[in-house]
Amino acid sequence: MLSRSHNINSEETIFYIDLVTNFIKRKNLVKAIRSFIKEKNKFNSLTSWGVVLFQKDENPICEYDLKETETVIKTITDNWDTREIEKSYLENGLYEILAYIFRKSREARKNYRVIIISDTPSKLADDYYNALYDLLIKAKKFSAFIDIIRVGKEQFYEDDVKLKVISSETFGGMFYCQEEKLLQNILGSLVQNKNEFKVLKSAETEKVLKEDKLFYERLAVDLISLSEEDDEICIICEQELCPICEAHSDEVHKCFNCNAKYHSCCSAKYSIAKNIGFRHLFRCIQCETLLKLDEEYVNMIYKEDLGENLPEIDTSKSLVEKIEEGSKDKVEQKQTEELEEVSLEGEFIEETQDINPEEPPSPLNSETSKKVKVGGFFGKEIEIKIKRDSKPLESTPELSIEQKTPTSITALKPPRKRRVSRIKLCKICGATLQGTITCPMCGAKDNS
Question: Which CATH number is 63's domain given?
Fold first, then answer.
């Protein structure tokens, strides 16, 4: 993530004049811009100005970092009559502006405010817009904000969605000016600095894409060797000898823009802690120029620091072996629990069988025989079989198992009825009715 400094006061506001029709007259445009610059200087005297205006045959007039108001007005006035009046080159103008922002961001940090005043939708192919969108994603990492003012009497334009995406991706706004005299008011609402507002950004918004690595590496600049007259005191540790490696072979290099000196170890440690999304790319402490270190060297320092901070981990056993051991332990534990349950059940059965061993239970529906003499004592003896139910077993002593007696529902105390509020609201005006059915405000009666 690109580190944003909270104390960036320097700002450059760039006016992109994309006016094809005569809806906005030059006199009113100059008046609105002059008033904007006057009010802007009251908030921030460190603001500079820029103007982009396309001429015929796709020839842009680009003036940047202007200090005087009259220089801005003169640039617009001198090129107004020769401007493009047939079609809009919105994407082309933004390409030029973003390229300038990227070039200047190599040297110093600054807030860039782009104000587009357009009255005609662009007819360029979608490929232009897709390429522009990729640049917009990168531009917002360099404190670039784009506001768009669409002037004209139409209520809707075919490129409304495209313009809203451009402005929202760069934390700007989209404004519609349907009357010429309202342009000055809309510009007046954009006077305050964008960094004065706390914009909520998600982690995904601030993320730097890996495929953009080459783009940032080309923007960054390597540290250069010292001159003979330069001292060798590092700006980070403020010493000649590096306190990290304590090696005299650690050479000191400097920033090409401000001559700030860096030890190799100190710059690598600083870049790891304060980078722009890649460990070997960082901004100079003194002038905020985008600097670049050797990536392999920085990664080596990073791995050394990571190894010192991480606890030692036993890697003798592979993860698969540990998982298998854990599963085996769980299976063995489950088997022992099942064996214990079986043994307990067996002991319980033996105990219940030993309660009355002398009287085994007789089978149900057993048959008994009885001999009877027919015709008296000297009569013929016959055997009669009688089928009867078995004698019921004697009650065995009950095991001492505690059972919770169910609680009767009638024994429970019913919940108390909540006190009904007597406060009502009038159905007509919403006033509070307390102790009355007639509204004291509108006189309506509530018979509910």
Answer: 3.40.50.410
